[in-house]
Design goal:
By secondary structure, the protein is α/β, with parallel strands linked by helices. The chain has 11 helices and 11 strands. The chain has a single domain, classed as Aldolase class I (TIM Barrel).
Length: 309
């Protein structure tokens, strides 16, 4: 077991002090079984609509413009006007400088505005810069902040630094919810994913999130399962629910449905809600829409009928 020294931040104890080892064979066998399942007919449509409402549409490119963000925001609450009864997506995620544009474009639609901060995606910046970045995004109107952990410090074994930095960013978030990105593709082992998950939760994360989407591999079902176990153990110990967001690499409705099955069975139906579970996968929205059109009409629409994010 990995030992973590007990800390106190804002009168809150740093727990847990022991991180359990991950059973790699058990994790991968569990995922393999889930992937053999399928959902048919009405339950499939219901599951796809549920997944659609859990997506964070994202644009995080150097060439982002107010016009591009405005167009993405329109899609967020007008996914397919010819299909009645569709939900809007959960959030639109942008850089801090474009938060105000997104807030104006989304209006009272109910779609949240998330902003990446803390020197996304590398996380390589001094803490004061990260705190200022976070506070600026919140001042512009961000409902949620997506931060990245300092992976170099984590790999150096400086877990207290990682904990303290997350706690400081959480403080800077004010009322905004904090998603802590572990960048699991750089962590190397399931044991390190579990350790990073426990540190993030103990430091005050509202969400734990797999990836920035900028490196490969991004989200995988085994890594997500390890993170779900960290959330489950924390809930059983404290009664506090923590949200989960796999991000990057989830492209098909079939994959999304497998993730939802896993969440329901590992955490319970309470987590099948956009407040507690998200997909960071913009391309997933179009695949779900194509499948819903097929279920409604019996025919697939061309990909040309759907916007490219």
């Amino acid at each position: 077991m990995t030992m973590i020294a007990e800390r106190t931040v804002r009168n809150r104890a740093f727990v847990p002090s022991h991180v359990p080892a991950v059973d790699q064979v058990g994790i991968e066998e569990r995922v393999a079984r889930i992937k053999t399942r399928s959902i048919k007919k009405a339950a499939k449509v219901q599951g796809m609509k549920l997944a659609l409402g859990m997506i964070d549409l994202t644009t995080l490119e150097g060439q982002d413009t107010p016009g591009k963000v405005t167009q993405l925001c329109y899609k967020a609450h007008h996914l397919h006007d010819q299909l009645p009864g569709l939900p809007h997506v959960a959030a639109v995620c942008v850089y801090p400088t474009l938060v105000k544009v997104a807030k104006k474009a989304l209006g009272d639609s109910g779609v949240k505005v998330a902003a990446v901060a803390t020197a996304f995606p590398s996380g390589q910046a001094p803490r004061p810069v990260k705190i200022a970045d976070t506070k600026f995004a919140v001042s512009e109107g961000a409902d949620e902040i997506d931060m990245v952990i300092s992976r170099g410090r984590f790999h150096s074994g400086d877990y207290n630094f990682v904990f303290d930095e997350i706690a400081a960013v959480k403080e800077a978030c004010g009322k905004a919810r904090l998603k802590v990105i572990l960048e699991t593709g750089e962590l190397g082992t399931y044991d390190k994913v579990r350790l990073a998950s426990d540190i993030a939760i103990a430091a005050g994360a509202d969400f734990i999130k797999t990836s920035t989407g900028k490196i490969s591999p991004a989200a995988t079902m085994p890594v997500t399962l390890v993170m779900l176990h960290a959330i489950r153990d924390h809930y059983l110990r404290t009664g506090q629910m923590i949200a989960m967001k796999p991000a990057g690499g989830i492209r098909t409705s079939k994959e999304a449905l497998h993730y939802l099955m896993m969440v329901k069975e590992e955490l319970g139906p309470e987590w099948l809600d956009p407040h507690w579970f998200r997909f960071g996968a913009s391309s997933l929205a179009n695949d779900i829409l194509m499948q819903l059109v097929k279920e409604a009409t019996g025919q697939y629409q061309s990909a040309d009928y759907f916007s490219v994010d």
